[in-house]
Amino acid sequence: MKLLILGSNGQVGHCLAEQAEKKGLEFYATNSSQLDITDYSKVAEVFRQVNPSLVINATAYTNVEKAEDEPEKALEVNSKSVGNLAGLCSKNNVPLIHISTDYVFDGTKDGYYQENDPVNPINSYGKSKLAGEQAVIANTGRYVILRTSWVFGRHGKNFVKTMLNLFKSRDELTVVSDQIGGPTFAGDIASAILRIAEVLESRPDFSDWGIFNFSGKEDVSWFEFAKSIYEASRQKQLITKDVSIKPIPASMFKTKATRPQNSKLDLSKIKNVFDISASDWKSEIDNYIEHYLQ
Ligand SMILES: NC(=O)c1ccc[n+]([C@@H]2O[C@H](COP(=O)([O-])OP(=O)(O)OC[C@H]3O[C@@H](n4cnc5c(N)ncnc54)[C@H](OP(=O)(O)O)[C@@H]3O)[C@@H](O)[C@H]2O)c1
């Protein structure tokens, strides 16, 4: 197996390269300064040089707020470039693992989203990611699209880091309590992807190509997530003062992009096909804080 990992500076991409290295896998990883995914001829050149047996795309335009101001840029990275990459994979008969998001849904479903539920993104980022899924499907047949949610890793910006910084600087804060989802540790996404890669490699007759949900459990609101991060950071004495965290509705937290109220993903398909279980975000928060303390 020879992996080409794109986006190795991102939260998930970083973990992918780290874990591939630890497992002794043969891989070639590029970050955005080494390979801009919107530079189609360069992507083709790297593809030729590396000659991978599997491609993992961890690149993305992920700034949900900024995407409202520059939807074209989000589309370029999250869809047009992805279509180009999928086309290269198809031409070379190489499977593609691509990452997508719960934001392809509008969040109005009462219950868990399954992979085949109707999509209806409600912000520019979600629209660009949905267009990316469609570009994969239109350009190649051998793909796994992993839809995940609320990602936090040790590298890069995320909600956990923001909360830890706020706990240090503030005595009181408000957090949205009417949006529910599954926080997902970036390292667990990387493990799931490498497990999928192993299955694809060991089963040349694999035919369950398609979209798969993967997230952390249990699902919580941002407010409940913030409380858990706070409790863990108090317990581990990263934070030694009281911080009052109050719930507010999303309508009171002004943002450019609207976010889905319900992002709960049903995980039975990935369990059945790849034997991958939900990420346990609570224990990863403990590990995260221990790592932070070091
Ligand atoms: N973050 C979340 O909460 C979340 C939730 C659901 C799904 N997802 C999806 O999960 C995947 C991984 O997300 P993440 O949190 O790891 O994102 P991330 O930390 O923002 O990483 C994305 C990486 O893509 C790179 N990139 C952006 N434009 C590029 C370009 N033109 N060429 C090459 N690389 C480019 C970025 O480079 P720079 O380092 O130069 O910026 C960054 O390193 C994405 O597909 C995302 O849509 C994320």
Automatic annotation (TrEMBL):
Co-factor remark: Binds 1 Mg(2+) ion per monomer.
UniProt superkingdom: Bacteria
Record keyword Transport present: no
Pfam families assigned to the protein according to its UniProt record, in alphabetical order: RmlD_sub_bind (PF04321)
Catalytic activity: dTDP-beta-L-rhamnose + NADP(+) = dTDP-4-dehydro-beta-L-rhamnose + NADPH + H(+)
Annotated GO biological process: dTDP-rhamnose biosynthetic process; O antigen biosynthetic process
NCBIfam families: rmlD
Protein name, UniProt field: dTDP-4-dehydrorhamnose reductase
